[in-house]
Amino acid sequence: MSSIRHALITGGSRGIGLSIAHHLARNSYRITLISRTRSALETAVSSLPLISPENAFGRAANLNHAYIEGDVSLSQFWENLNSETGDGGVEKGTVDLLVNCAGISQNSLLVRTQPSVIENVVATNLTSVMLAVRALIKAKKFRSKDAGIGSPSVINLASLLAIKGGRGAVAYSASKAGVLGLTRALAAECGPMGLRVNAIVPGYVETDMTKGFSPAAREEITKHIPLKRFGTCDEIAQAALFLATNEYANNCVINLDGGLSAI
């Protein structure tokens, strides 16, 4: 039987999502990236390491990485993904791992934040996760735990602001706190069917989002982090690989914030 596993990664065209894709691809995962921008997806997929043919043990297998363009916050997107034919179709019983990494930030006081922005943040960061898991379970897209290559799982990306809060990020903090509540509920609900659900809680990580911080802001943040630096996308990806492969990890929440949540 082939050892090749299949991972769907939302928000996978850059940053943490793309780093997770690279780590998984180097460990015999076929990757399907999901994002809104086709050009970014094409570039991201082309950067992924090829899966070694010998890892398929001679069994015919689709070793090509792929991408699906779309808005994960829309229920229609997931309905299309469940189609057995046409663009974006995902076959039944072929998904070993779903990584919910799609997310958008918000930086404004609540009273100055437009309702449309609040709705978009919650829809992208939280509702999309519920829609994704619901759709894949309902359409039996997850591979059976009896397939011989380990149990399927879901990894949700939350945020330090889900547990610590942050001025000017009410919608974002609330959406990410919801991701943790969702993870706990799904771990209890889906565990008996052999689907593991876990979460990663990153702190400040070197991404396109944090590159926009002013030097003064970075200095102020860094002085409060016990390890005195931001994390890297690769460090988050290492945790994702652990959660994907550890068969007893269910409702496992990993904080990766350099100790900032302890302050």
**Overall pLDDT metric:** 91
CATH architecture: 3-Layer(aba) Sandwich
CATH C-level name: Alpha Beta
Give the SSE string: EHEHEHEHEHHEHHHE
Biggest sheet descriptor: 7 strands, parallel
Number of strands: 7
Helix content: 25-40%
Q: What's the number of domains?
A: 1
In CATH terms, what is the fold-level topology? Rossmann fold
Family: Belongs to the short-chain dehydrogenases/reductases (SDR) family.
InterPro entries: NAD(P)-bd_dom_sf, Sc_DH/Rdtase_CS, SDR_fam
GO molecular function: oxidoreductase activity, acting on the CH-OH group of donors, NAD or NADP as acceptor; quinone binding
Protein name: NAD(P)-binding protein
Please describe the topology of this protein.
Elements: E1 5-10, H1 15-25, E2 29-35, H2 38-47, E3 66-69, H3 75-81, E4 97-100, H4 115-138, E5 153-157, H5 161-164, H6 170-190, E6 196-202, H7 208-211, H8 215-222, H9 233-245, E7 253-256
Parallel strand pairs: 1-2, 1-4, 2-3, 4-5, 5-6, 6-7
Helix pairs in contact: 1-9, 4-6
Primary descriptors:
single chain; 263 residues; alpha/beta; Rossmann fold; 7-stranded parallel sheet; quinone binding; oxidoreductase; oxidoreductase activity, acting on the CH-OH group of donors, NAD or NADP as acceptor
